[in-house]
Specification:
Blueprint: E1 2-9, E2 12-21, E3 24-26, H1 33-36, E4 39-44, E5 47-53, H2 55-67, H3 74-87, H4 91-100, H5 102-115, H6 122-131, H7 133-139
Antiparallel strand pairs: 1-2, 2-3, 2-5, 4-5
Helix pairs in contact: 3-4, 5-6
């Protein structure tokens, strides 16, 4: 069951959505381009608890979509933000790409933490993965593979 909450924080509306599955939080896939490029994983202890929306990224993505003549795929927008990052490595550009990579980083971190003997939690492994987004981007070549998420494997 999908649930959510919205609240004011420092003059911005923060939206969190989450799903409960047998009393545990389960990751609900993000729907739509705006969500994919403007929301971030939130943890409760060591498990996914919801999506947090960054209002600045949400506005930025909506403006981009309004200027675009047609609705493009998430892969198109990932390559778009990658090319913008190549030309001007701004915090907003990197944040859009980091938002895009949230799900794949979460599942990779979860698999790593559970399958290898490590002292690190899923949340720790996730933070390590997200901290290396710039390194991932430096090795990404959209002419060889237009799917940025595939670089995580």
């Amino acid at each position: 069951m999908q649930q959510g909450i919205s609240f004011w924080l420092y003059g911005c509306i923060i939206e969190i959505s989450y799903g409960l599955n047998n009393g545990e939080y389960s990751m609900q896939p993000r729907q739509g381009i705006v969500e994919i490029f403007s929301t971030f994983v939130q943890f409760d202890v060591d498990q996914f608890s919801g999506w947090v929306t960054d209002p600045k990224l949400r506005r930025s993505m909506k403006v981009c979509l309004e200027r675009s003549s047609t609705e493009k795929s998430d892969t198109f927008w990932a390559v778009y933000w990658y090319r913008v990052w190549q030309n001007e490595s701004s915090a907003v550009t990197l944040a859009h790409i980091s938002a895009y990579l949230q799900e794949v980083c979460y599942w990779t971190a979860r698999k790593f933490a559970r399958n290898f003997s490590t002292q690190s939690s899923v949340a720790d492994c996730f933070q390590i993965a997200i901290a290396h987004v710039s390194k991932i981007l430096k090795t990404f070549n959209p002419q060889c593979n237009s799917h940025l998420k595939a670089m995580q494997n």
